[in-house]
Amino acid sequence: MATVIAIANQKGGVGKTTTAVNLAAAFARKKKRTLLIDLDPQANTTLTFFSLEEVSQSIYDVLADHQVKMADIVKPTKCPNLCVVPSKIALAKLEATLVGQFDAPYRLKDALAPVRDHFDIILMDNPPALGLITVNSLVAATHLLVPIQAAYYAMEGCDDLLETLERIRARPNPELQLLGVVITLFDKRTNLARDIHKQVCQVFGAKVFKTVIGKNVRLEESPAYKETVFTYAPDSSGAEDYEHLAREVLQRV
Ligand SMILES: Nc1ncnc2c1ncn2[C@@H]1O[C@H](COP(=O)(O)OP(=O)(O)OP(=O)(O)O)[C@@H](O)[C@H]1O
Ligand SMILES: [Mg+2]
């Protein structure tokens, strides 16, 4: 059965999507059968691989309607071993669609069950919120990976995320584990970044990955060319950082 990793932090712009896309690509390069599920209505992950015209049905259709199966919307990418489940802006109305449905938090877990055996690793990119979408993701996950940006107020909101983790672990998903915390957008030239790194290590201890994702302009550019960093700039520090993170993640799962 696949390892299922939710990448989440309700703070916006901390590197969730960049981490989801490039970690997935790094696993695929290691010959792991990898599925990347876009759970953000902004669809940034989806747009790294496809144009909007290439996406007809999305994860919204699977979660909102029992007739649409996950297998119907899994799309192979041009990267060997990497498939993507696309998102669309329609996903923003999921909460309204599922209001009052007793199985609302379990929709993703149930939908994923028939395809879990087809993959070694499933990664889920979440929106910057702790609503029904992130709850579905944590109910379906075996592990939670939290990117934290090395910036002022880095850990703001972390308490709420950890409280959500505990709540989900208490009832719907006792198997859910905190896989780790990865520091992103790290600028080693600034004292602030180093201070934040120290603070995060004080709070999360051994859960902090040794790999730190440095600021690297190639990571920012690659989605615009519909590439992951490994095809866009294979010799960049961004590619190296995500390769190291992938190795560390595989040691932990
Ligand atoms: N290590 C990095 N170096 C340089 N730029 C980065 C790095 N990581 C992310 N970025 C850029 O920072 C911005 C935010 O990153 P990203 O979209 O991955 O964050 P996010 O947490 O998914 O945001 P949101 O909460 O809106 O979904 C993007 O423009 C991205 O290209
Ligand atoms: Mg994102």
Q: Keywords, please?
A:
single chain; 253 residues; alpha/beta; Rossmann fold; seven-stranded mixed β-sheet; 7 strands; 40% helix; 14% strand; binds adenosine-5'-triphosphate; binds magnesium ion
Largest sheet: 7 strands, mixed
Low-confidence stretches: none
- Termini distance? 12 Å
How much is the radius of gyration in Å?
17 Å
The CATH C-level name of the domain at 3-179 is Alpha Beta
Q: Count the DSSP helices.
A: 12
CATH-wise, what's the superfamily of the domain at 3-179?
A: P-loop containing nucleotide triphosphate hydrolases
Helix content: 40-55%
Quick take:
By secondary structure, the protein is an alpha/beta fold.
Describe this structure in words.
With 253 residues, the chain is of the alpha/beta class. It has a domain at 3-179: Rossmann fold (3-Layer(aba) Sandwich). The chain is 40% helix and 14% strand. It is built from twelve helices and seven strands. It has helices at residues 16-29, 44-49, 59-64, 70-73, 94-98, 107-112, 132-140, 158-170, 191-204, 217-221, 229-232, 237-252; strands at residues 3-7, 34-38, 75-76, 82-85, 121-125, 143-149, 177-184. Strands 3-4-2-5-1-6-7 form a seven-stranded mixed sheet, sandwiched between helices. Strand 3 and strand 4 (82-85) form a beta hairpin. Helix 1 packs across helix 12 (237-252). It is globular and about 50 Å long. It starts with a strand and ends with a helix. The mean pLDDT is 97. The protein binds adenosine-5'-triphosphate and magnesium ion. Magnesium ion is lined by residues 16-17, 40, 44, 125.
